[in-house]
## 1
Amino acid sequence: MRFPLVLFFLQFSLLSIHSEFSQHRTEILAADGSYVLHWSIDYVAKVVRFNATVATRGYVGFGISPSGGMTGADIVIGGIFENGTAYFSDRHAVGESLPIVDKAQNWDLLNATETTDGVTTLIFERAFNTCDDEDVVLSNDTTNFIWAYSPTNSDDVVYHTSGFRGTLTVQPLDPEVPPLDPGHWSQYDIKHTMTMPDADTTYWCTIHRSPVFTEKHHIVAFEPLLTSSEAIAHTHHYNIFRCTPPDGVDAETFFGPHVDAGVGGECYVAQPEVPTAYCQTMFYNWAVGGRTLVLPPNIGYPIGETGNPVDYYMFEIHYNNPTRLQNVTFETGAIIYYTPELRQHDAGLMVVAHHTSLSLTVPPNSTGFKTAGHCDSACTEEYLPEEGINVFAIFLHAHLSGRKMKFRQFRGDQELPWAANDDTYDFEFQQTRPLSKELKILRGDHLTMECTYDTTWYDQSKVVIGGLSTTNEMCQSIFWYYPRAELRDCRSEYPTEEIFAKFGIESANRSTPYEDAIITAPTSLAGMSYTEVLNTRVDWTSELRKAIEQDSLTRPHVGVCWTASETKNIDQIGYPSGIVREYAPRDECNSSLANRLVLTVPIFLGMIFSLIEIV
Ligand SMILES: *[C@@H]1O[C@H](CO)[C@@H](O)[C@H](O)[C@H]1NC(C)=O
Ligand SMILES: *[C@@H]1O[C@H](CO)[C@@H](O)[C@H](O)[C@H]1NC(C)=O
Ligand SMILES: *[C@@H]1O[C@H](CO)[C@@H](O)[C@H](O)[C@H]1NC(C)=O
Ligand SMILES: *[C@@H]1O[C@H](CO)[C@@H](O)[C@H](O)[C@H]1NC(C)=O
Ligand SMILES: *[C@@H]1O[C@H](CO)[C@@H](O)[C@H](O)[C@H]1NC(C)=O
Ligand SMILES: *[C@@H]1O[C@H](CO)[C@@H](O)[C@H](O)[C@H]1NC(C)=O
Ligand SMILES: *[C@@H]1O[C@H](CO)[C@@H](O)[C@H](O)[C@H]1NC(C)=O
Ligand SMILES: *[C@@H]1O[C@H](CO)[C@@H](O)[C@H](O)[C@H]1NC(C)=O
């Protein structure tokens, strides 16, 4: 009787290695529908299977390009010859020319068909990481799909003409988002129409109200509402916050007049027109490139709970108008979908960030300048529920100089795998990214948001500082989780006084933390702005650059965390001490014996134990 059991086990283990394609994604690559790509992801076997369905009887090209162009792209070209034989090759491009065939062929063609009415379908597969320098790695990094096909039904692969090629920015390993189901959901919108101010950067805030709810509902989806090309071109991002009136004040009395007035005012000024201080709970955010957000089927964002029949919101729009256009009027908004059919879990949102302030100072012409903001364990310890929280989506936010974004998590003496890591962050493509595996955050975990900037594209003689404009920087993550907890925002910064001291600044006058400061002492610098001093009076040696980066990463930060009702200030925070092992993704391409043993020994032991158990 032992023999069949062993066989059964072996068969089972083979099956579980080649588990299954658990996620299925689709993109219409050519706007006219002539090139449709489906792809399925197997996270266990780490394989992606593509299905390119293209309106041609000639060749079909598909590629993955970190830069978006041909250069550096990993490309396959395939099709079916007149005589019915299929062809397919793994190639790479070194320029805007016919891609070169790779020495190793790592993409596998599984099927090729061509219909008489002229549709070619290619099914092909590849590993996330083929360990071939002539291929690119598929990871959680933002990348681009590039595509092309023969406009003349030709199998003679020539360098493709325009009109039959294109690029799509994509995060290829992200799971699919459930479909929008407007037929079954109710909706309301939060929107604002106005003439965009003719300033480079404007943060405009208006107050809005939800419909009246007589019982609790769940919000299940958010869809951006940008109805014109102007709205798409000039709405850099927006945040919608929920509002809570001061104690003992009726919400309608407090917020109603602002809703009815409708005009709003600038957000980050000393005395804003609207009560921004009472609208601090992040509700939804969107940024350039962002798509519809549909929550997983077991999760809803609660609204209309007892005592709160109407929700009030502050809608903060970041208008980006670098050429200072005048008289441009458009509508910006969001559609909120909700249902009375309550789901299993209530969702919440939380921010982990570096403060947006002068403490974030990037030396001129920097490549790879890193900064980090911390959410100290004291915050998670005090404000998370005992069973912890489960994160299901993350949005990472930086401005034009942001290049790499990493969300780190530390527990005890270990660093856990990165929940989000994008080494090719794309400012033009900011998404609330669903996680393929939910992330657990427990009480006492320390969270760190790391951002890396490149400012060589900017005026090479000027520093970049933290601030609101897209040419200033931010370092933020906003994540969606359940069950809803008290903690809503957690940040830190290297004390601004310390960075001032490095440049001989004794005191400065700032009306808000977001603005450049005016030096008040010493007298030799008085009247100059902080950036003016840094741009004209500082000799940016490589030692100074390194010192700024190192000190802001390693010297104690001042931190803060907020709940709806409390603010907790924490001094002397930084990377947790006593971490014995930092997380490092496994190098799948290291063929050294030591590296392979690390992997195979546990599998081997596991097999032996399973056999013993069966026997
Ligand atoms: C490939 O996609 C096409 C439509 O886009 C579909 O009709 C076809 O069934 C798919 N093939 C496979 C093997 O999934
Ligand atoms: C089919 O056509 C291609 C291209 O002309 C040629 O290379 C290939 O040998 C042909 N195959 C057969 C089976 O005739
Ligand atoms: C290829 O796909 C076609 C159409 O879906 C199917 O009829 C055929 O059996 C497939 N061939 C192989 C080798 O899988
Ligand atoms: C903007 O509109 C106003 C009023 O319609 C008009 O007087 C003004 O000339 C316009 N400005 C520009 C730059 O078009
Ligand atoms: C991508 O992120 C997910 C979390 O959503 C993580 O589980 C996975 O290991 C990451 N994949 C790679 C290839 O880094
Ligand atoms: C900025 O750095 C690049 C190399 O990274 C260098 O070529 C360029 O000269 C630098 N610019 C200035 C103004 O120093
Ligand atoms: C600081 O700025 C405020 C307004 O921006 C101004 O009223 C005040 O005089 C300034 N203080 C100094 C010392 O310059
Ligand atoms: C391969 O892995 C081994 C053991 O994990 C490590 O010592 C070695 O440095 C790695 N080699 C490379 C090229 O990464």
## 2
Amino acid sequence: MELNVIRNTDPEIAKLVEEELSRQQNTIELIASENFTSEAVMAAAGTVLTNKYAEGKPYKRFYNGCEIVDKIESLAQERVKKLFGVQHANVQPHSGAQANMAVFLYVLKPGDKILGMDLSNGGHLSHGSPVNFSGMYFDVVSYGVNENGYIDYDDVEKIAIENKPKLIIAGASNYPRIIDFKRFRQIADKVGAFLLADIAHIAALVATGLHPSPVGYAHFITTTTHKTLRGPRGGVIMCDDEHALGIDKAVFPGTQGGPLEHIIAAKAVAFGEALKPEFKEYAQQVINNAKTLAQTLIDNGLDVVSGGTDNHLLTLDLRKVGKTGKDVANLLEEVHITANKNTVPNDPQSPFVTSGVRLGTAAVTTRGFTEEDMKIVGEIISNVVKYSDDETIFEKSKRMALALCEKYPLYSKGEKLRTI
Ligand SMILES: *Cc1c(COP(=O)(O)O)cnc(C)c1O
């Protein structure tokens, strides 16, 4: 569709977009934070709405001519409020990190204390990493996971009582188990802290009731829209009405300028899709696929952090087999599987090398993969880890991966996902 238009004016970029489509087509995408949007979501992101400046919020703008984008942004707000059952939503954050930044700006002063999950234990950069603004402007204490890979809530409570943070962050980029938001709130109340639930990764599971919701427990909820939620790249902040004005001000003018109304329209389309009953089937299949992948790896004698998963992701622990996450992620790329290296709890390797590989099923499930396919994916990964020196097995793994890619065509050829 749009690609033809680009081809006519900028063949150089059009060709690269085509190459990227082909890369996505010929790859089994196991990066846990990625997904494939619907044709409608992608089309909405490529509309004339990109031309409009709309600083402010619906019906309270600093520019004229916002009547239509007001309606679009209101629809996005109403849909996401319904999806999660919240009182207020700001759909303007350009990304998950921007959403968190706005919450910090509203709740904290520079130098205030925050308690978040340690990056190497599964937390996100924006939860207090020293290389991120959150770690530079605030006094950070962190919690991790125990030897079994689970959050130890008694330990979180102990750290909170000792340090009295002003904000506690519950949420992760790499945690395969259920997060107990109720317990987090009890801890926050004990020390007089605000609770932020960052559900960037598990948003689709929360929206469909397949993971307990933080609504009613967290003072603020942030999420990305492009991970399990399958929308365009972006963020959302949700809260009760009492914090609505403060949060809105923290987004604009606090941390952002004009909202991306074309992306907000695409978010509205994605929220509409997520409100349909089929989306719950999708989310359930994502979990089933992750469980099947974890079990297949375990059946092949490999270790998985915490022994399995409750959600859409898992981490292969390579310490026992003496390989690094970096090496295995590179080997997987050679057999057409993309995944990222990731630290495991108490990782002896540096974050650039690591002893783990994070694997997620949100993207392949959108493509149509079922449990049977995940067993094959698990076999391929196990073969690559165990027999990487065996040329015959390696070549066979490549063929098996490509056969799965052929089985589930993307966009141009696919039935469900036709776009370009
Ligand atoms: C991905 C992620 C973010 C940041 O999202 P971006 O859109 O990349 O800024 C924030 N928090 C968590 C827990 C995440 O996993």
## 3
Amino acid sequence: MAILTVPVFWALISLFTCSVYSVPSAKQPRQSAGCTADYFNSIIPTGASIESVQHITSGSFSESGDIGYPSIASGLPPLCAVIVKNETENFRFGLFLPDNWNSKLLVVGSYSFLGGINWLDMGPGAQFGMASLSTDTGHSSGQGDLTWPTTDQLRVNWAWQALEGSIILGKSLIQSFYNDKSIAYSYFSGCSTGGRQGLKQIQRNPYFFDGALIGAPAWDTMGLMPWISAQATWNLPEDAPGSISDVNLFSRLQQEVLKQCDSLDGVQDNIISSPAACRANFDINQINCDVTTNKTYCWTQAQIDTAQKIYSDYVTSTGNFVYKGAEYGSEDTWSTFLFPADSPTSTSNVRRVFDAEYERTFMGYGADWQITSYNDSVVYDARTRDQNSVQATADKYDLGSFRNKGKISTYN
Ligand SMILES: *[C@@H]1O[C@H](CO)[C@@H](O)[C@H](O)[C@H]1NC(C)=O
Ligand SMILES: *[C@@H]1O[C@H](CO)[C@@H](O)[C@H](O)[C@H]1NC(C)=O
Ligand SMILES: *[C@@H]1O[C@H](CO)[C@@H](O)[C@H](O)[C@H]1NC(C)=O
Ligand SMILES: [Ca+2]
């Protein structure tokens, strides 16, 4: 499955895959202004500073110490790579400014809770001749690290402020660099957290972009994260009859879903193109150990009950909708949420990858908080916190002002 080819932590935030770009050929040439620290220092406003300026002719670029996005951007045309820091809000952003600029800007999003400038995804923009921009979202962190959100400023930067400030200052630096020629078109592309960032910016400022490519947006932070934790609790305790502890069970279920649902969309092609038809028709009892004659990786009734909870919408005990149930066909990804990442006797306090880290640090419950303490109040706390101070969730649904000027393409 394609999802296995992206780092698991990216996949965590969405049950979908985030695709990559194809590589275009270069566009029409235009000379750039001086790619020097002196030049950028002469145009940078108070409150921001220039961290580095490099003219890249080798075709590749990476920033040492970028633990969030360590991959080298390669296949680059000659360009100016700039790192800018906003000193007051403490976030950074990177720019690729191609020598031959096509007057366009591509802003790229981030993944999960990673902290760092996403140089890799900026590369294709530069290959198209676009100036490209990405923010570190205000912190530095690698995969699986959710220990950084210790202040509201750090959380707000991740939620939207670092990207917004980067776009505003970035656009003005780009125009100065290219001799005050204005940016003809600005685009956004992001997947997972990146999809959320794009929707959030469009909702906050419909004039930032002319078009946006929104992949598998993890737009509902305050519902999504408690839902992920809730799923972990549905699989506890690990010795309960309903606990799914054998990783092979997930692929067994997914195989069965594919077998029963593939052709429901009219085409036998290993793709479930009608999840709704699958949801309406799938008979999970075909893999029930009491029913099936094939006893290899069959599911007990108690385990089936756990699976049904995961497929169902998560609604609190008082009837508040929290998050839509998992799609049929996503079963192979469930192990990320349900299956222990370390041994039961581990003292690291991280039994699964996310398992409670969001509550401990992002929501401020503290390092000692255990997933076994999870209850519906986490949902309400997450909502209060998000709406009062962080505002990561992209839930201002009126996109009317953007519709009149731009386009959004989405994919999952
Ligand atoms: C720094 O970021 C904040 C928040 O986005 C913004 O208000 C401020 O103008 C930025 N400073 C500069 C110099 O861009
Ligand atoms: C039984 O199920 C296993 C696991 O899905 C599969 O590999 C095997 O081919 C099945 N055997 C039969 C006879 O269907
Ligand atoms: C629900 O969880 C919260 C956070 O862990 C905790 O403070 C509260 O006491 C719990 N409520 C109940 C009824 O267990
Ligand atoms: Ca099909």
